[in-house]
Design a protein that fits this description.
By secondary structure, the chain is of the alpha/beta class. Helix content is 39%, strand content 12%. It has one domain: Metal-dependent hydrolases (TIM Barrel). The strands form 2 sheets. Strands 1, 2, 3, 4, 5 and 6 form a 6-stranded parallel β-sheet that branches. The radius of gyration is 18 Å and the shape is globular.
Length: 334
Amino acid sequence: MITEGLEWYQEALLVDAHNDTLSRMRDGEMDFCIRQAATHTDLPRLLEVGMSVQVLAMFAAPCANKSISLHKILSYAEYAHQCIEHDPRLLVVQTKKDLPSPPPDRDRLRVILGVEGGDCLGGELWVLELLFRLGVRLLTLTWSNRNALADGVWETRSNGGLTNFGHEVVGRMQELGMIIDVSHLAPAGFWDVAKVVEGPFIASHSNAAALCPHPRNLTDEQARSIAEHGGVIGVNFCQPHLTDGTARLEHVVEHVEHFWRVAGEEHVGLGTDYDGIDTPPIGLEEVTCLPRLIQELEKRGHSQNRIQKFLGQNFLRVFRDILPTVSGDDQRHQ
């Protein structure tokens, strides 16, 4: 791992708002807790790079049978808890107090469990309650398809926003202290969320449409709305979301800088999408390459203060604002 000239980085809190390695490891019968050759990340490399908080997304491909979708998500949740229970280097974040404070603990990774796409809810609010009890603290409302909550970005012709059930889910998430994630959500649904959510919401892994007009990317107007709500946009490493052609580290930097100009430095973070993408940008092939991104930002004259906000402080601020003060079990016994 390259850290020459980045001594201050050893004291930085690093947060990645989206990583698909959990689903990939479970499906491939691999062990997240040991170094792997076939993935972009694993626990040893995340600790090596100094990751403080990693959102581990659980994703089940769209399926007409929502029971199958839920079964898949529950299998990922069980796998995650097996890893957490058997490896003391892992801690699941359920409340504000579980989040890290400086100085960083380089020997422990805190994980936030997320579900990517509300298909598994099957139109039933009790499933959201169950997922919360299992430690899930983030929900990406849709993947790119339509589900019972709203339309994804593949369905923009319908102009469909949040359904009645989608409104119910968003409302209950705010009550529980769950992070609302609008990545993959069609524009009409995005603006519905912006109208009904009182506090911050996030786009965990979305880039700038002004630089790359992919349906998955955010317009400047959407980016400003997230900032106005106090939320954060996580810049991702997916090649089609970065450029029309071969993606390089420099393209990631350009998206970060664009969001800084449009939304402000308090509202941009990291959402790599490692292990959910086929080909990472040249220069950011796997997670221990992240210091190269920091070096490039410094090279372009950005301050350590601005970079540290991007690396983790911004997402940590939002997570502290949203997450519950006590766990689900403690809430029920109060």
